[in-house]
Amino acid sequence: MAAKKKETRVIITGFGGQGIVLTGNILGQAATLHDGLHATMTQNYGPEARGGSCSSQVIISGAEIPYPYVEQADLLVCMSQEGYTKNLSALAPGGVLVWDTNLVKTGGHDPSWRTFDLPATAIAEEMGNKMMANIVMLGFLSAVFPAASPEAMREAMLAAVPPRTKDKNALAFERGRERGQGLLESGRAGQGRRRS
Amino acid sequence: MAAKKKETRVIITGFGGQGIVLTGNILGQAATLHDGLHATMTQNYGPEARGGSCSSQVIISGAEIPYPYVEQADLLVCMSQEGYTKNLSALAPGGVLVWDTNLVKTGGHDPSWRTFDLPATAIAEEMGNKMMANIVMLGFLSAVFPAASPEAMREAMLAAVPPRTKDKNALAFERGRERGQGLLESGRAGQGRRRS
To answer: CB 3.0–4.6 Å: which of A73, A117, B62, B178 could bond A11 by disulfide?
Structure first.
């Protein structure tokens, strides 16, 4: 099971139109093209997706990945309430939970988790386009959970967004990244609280 | 194995920048949001992706999909020479092979396959943007291998592309679709030729 241990397993969840698949794709590209790792990205679509819920699963590994489904995640990113509720049980002990403060109300959490929240949507709106919330989140992740190297995540993001939007997205990434660095430096990362 | 038989397994292969992941995502969305089916889309990134090769695997089913990897495909779409060479052995007996005439030189094929070729890149270039080759291909597939209903594929495509580009992409889809319908009507779909 040595290979298994080297895997980093990520679930990104939100709703249609937020760029959840794009975010997963950027993470996979960053790990592969820039960091020389293996990665898979899987999206499940089901009739429940009618409600707009969607999720992207990314596995990053130093070796080939035999099974692309994430059963236990090291990182769970929640950009919708439904995504949070549905996927919380998939976060492994000791995992990292990140959510968009503007979109998710959280309950009690496993005390072994590290928790981070970020008003990604509000930051993106302030910058003029809430569709960039996923990029703000990506910048934040590059600080608090760099599944790929931060520079690789930034490069892969720039390659994935429409050319005209590069400057704005670079700024959105930076805003999120600064927020994450600030949280880490201030020691304000949360610990899970027991479910009440 | 009844559920297995109901699965439609697709591999779309090409190189970075062609929108291969987007094409897989559109197919998954079409099947789910519009046709009420289940779907998964998996992308594998590996160090070999440095060369630019990439592929997207889509499974569409009336039931939940237990294993998202495609081992034997019902449809293989090739938008690069390397994608063709690497994935040909994954096409099931009786499967459908589609390639972009501008990008792929084919060899001998299993005689049980149905084969279709389309100058997707040339058509897209003629329309002013070769980046739309994947949408031309999607329109073509809506005629020759409608893994989701053609109308669903069209709707999912329109929802996935940048709003400003909808008209051009609608036209690209239509060009590909007409080409596919023309081939079907003229009976010019190929049969596999024995490998020489």
So the answer is: A73
CA B17 – CA A40 distance, rounded (Å): 18
Task: Say if residues B79 and B18 touch (Cβ distance below 8 Å).
Answer: yes
Nearest CA to B123 out of B183, B182, B174 is that of B174
Q: Taking residues B89-109, what's their average pLDDT?
A: 96
- pTM comes to 0.83
Q: What is the mean pLDDT of chain B?
A: 89
- Quick one: CA torsion of A72, A78, A81, A87, rounded to 10 degrees? -10
Q: Does A46 touch chain B (CB under 8 A)?
A: yes
List the domain range (segments joined by +) for residue A95: 2-184
Q: For residues A83 and A13, is the Cβ–Cβ distance under 8 A?
A: yes
* List of chain A residues whose C-beta atoms are within 8 Å of the C-beta of residue B28: 43, 45
Q: B188 lies in a domain? A: no
The enclosing domain of A71 has a CATH number of: 3.40.920.10
Amino acid at A13: T
Residue A37: both structure tokens together: 């790792």
Which chain A positions have a beta carbon within 8 Å of B46's beta carbon?
Answer: 32, 38-39, 64
Tokens representing B14 are 């090409």
Low-confidence stretches of chain A (pLDDT beneath 50): 1-4, 194-196
This complex has an ipTM of 0.76
The reply to whether B195 falls in a domain is no
Q: Which residues of B touch A45 (CB under 8 A)?
A: 28-29, 31-33, 38-41
| Nearest in space to A97 (alpha carbons), one of A80, A81, A117 | A117
User: Tell me: the pLDDT tens digits for A133-177?
Assistant: 999 999 999 999 999 999 999 999 999 898 899 999 999 999 999
A15 within some domain: yes
pLDDT tens digit sequence for B110-162:
999 999 999 999 999 999 999 999 999 999 999 999 999 999 999 999 988 98
Does a structural domain hold residue A67?
yes
Residue A68 CB-half CA count within 13 A: 25
Q: What does B82-134 look like in DSSP terms, one character per residue?
A: HHHHHHGGGEEEEEEEEEETTT-------TT-EEEEE-HHHHHHHTT-GGGHH
Number of domains in chain A: 1
